[in-house]
Every structure is written in structure tokens, then in C-alpha cells.
Write a structure and sequence with these properties.
With 120 residues, the protein is an alpha+beta fold. It has 2 helices and 9 strands, in the order E-E-H-E-E-E-E-E-E-E-H. The strands form 2 sheets. Strands 4-8-9-7-6-5 form a 6-stranded mixed beta sheet.
Length: 120
């Protein structure tokens, strides 16, 4: 698998490998549990207002990997199927990651969301 979600003692890490890492321009994104305001499993709405702008990464069909902006929001997206994702809404704060929302494709969104909630 080219993407995995790893739960550590103080943070969740999204690890990317292969072409996914190349396309996203990142090998990993580490998100401290203290920065996570909400965990959701709703499908990611690619079309919407304001428009989604790519700032580093790639978008091909339904596949999105990398850094994007939607209005003032900074997003990190890595998925092929927008209906099988975990969304992590982040609290404002200093340091990395400098995102407002992280959306990651996973095989079982509900189980992954429960595991993240239990770990934080």
C-alpha cells in the first residue's frame, strides 16, 4: 500500500511511499493529537465553493495528493476515492503541520476514525 496511517503515542502519522509520495511532494505528515479538533468520515466534496486550488501535488480524475487551498483553508489531501476517507480538522496552532484539514484515503474509514479517537 502506498499510504498508511500510523498511530503513535503523541501523534498520528500519514506515511506515503512510491508514486503517491512523489505526487504529494511529501513522505509523511505528522499531526499531534493536541491539534486534532475533529475526526470525520464524510466523503470529501471535491467540487464546491470556494474552488479547490492545487498548491503542490497532483490532481488526476478523482485522485488527489498533496497540498491544496480552498478559500483561506490549507488542506493536505491523499486519496483515490473521496467516499473512503478520514478527515482530520485541525486546531489553529504554531508549528507543523500548517494545514487546517487533512483528508486521507483508508480501507475502513469508520475503524480508522475510531482508532484515532481512542488514541487521542
Amino acid at each position: 500500500m502506498s499510504r498508511s496511517v500510523v498511530l503513535g503515542p503523541t501523534a498520528v502519522e500519514v506515511r506515503l511511499s512510491g508514486l503517491t509520495a512523489v505526487g504529494a511532494l511529501a513522505r509523511s505528515v505528522v499531526i499531534p493529537y493536541a491539534r486534532i479538533a475533529a475526526v470525520g468520515t464524510e466523503p470529501f466534496e471535491k467540487r464546491g465553493t470556494p474552488r479547490l486550488w492545487r498548491t503542490g501535488g497532483y490532481a488526476l480524475g478523482g485522485t488527489l495528493h498533496g497540498r491544496f487551498r480552498r478559500g483561506p483553508q490549507r488542506l493536505f489531501l491523499s486519496f483515490e476515492d473521496a467516499s473512503r476517507v478520514v478527515q482530520l480538522e485541525l486546531r489553529p496552532g504554531g508549528g507543523e503541520p500548517s494545514f487546517d484539514l487533512v483528508v486521507v484515503g483508508v480501507p475502513d474509514p469508520a475503524a480508522t476514525a475510531r482508532a484515532i479517537e481512542a488514541a487521542r
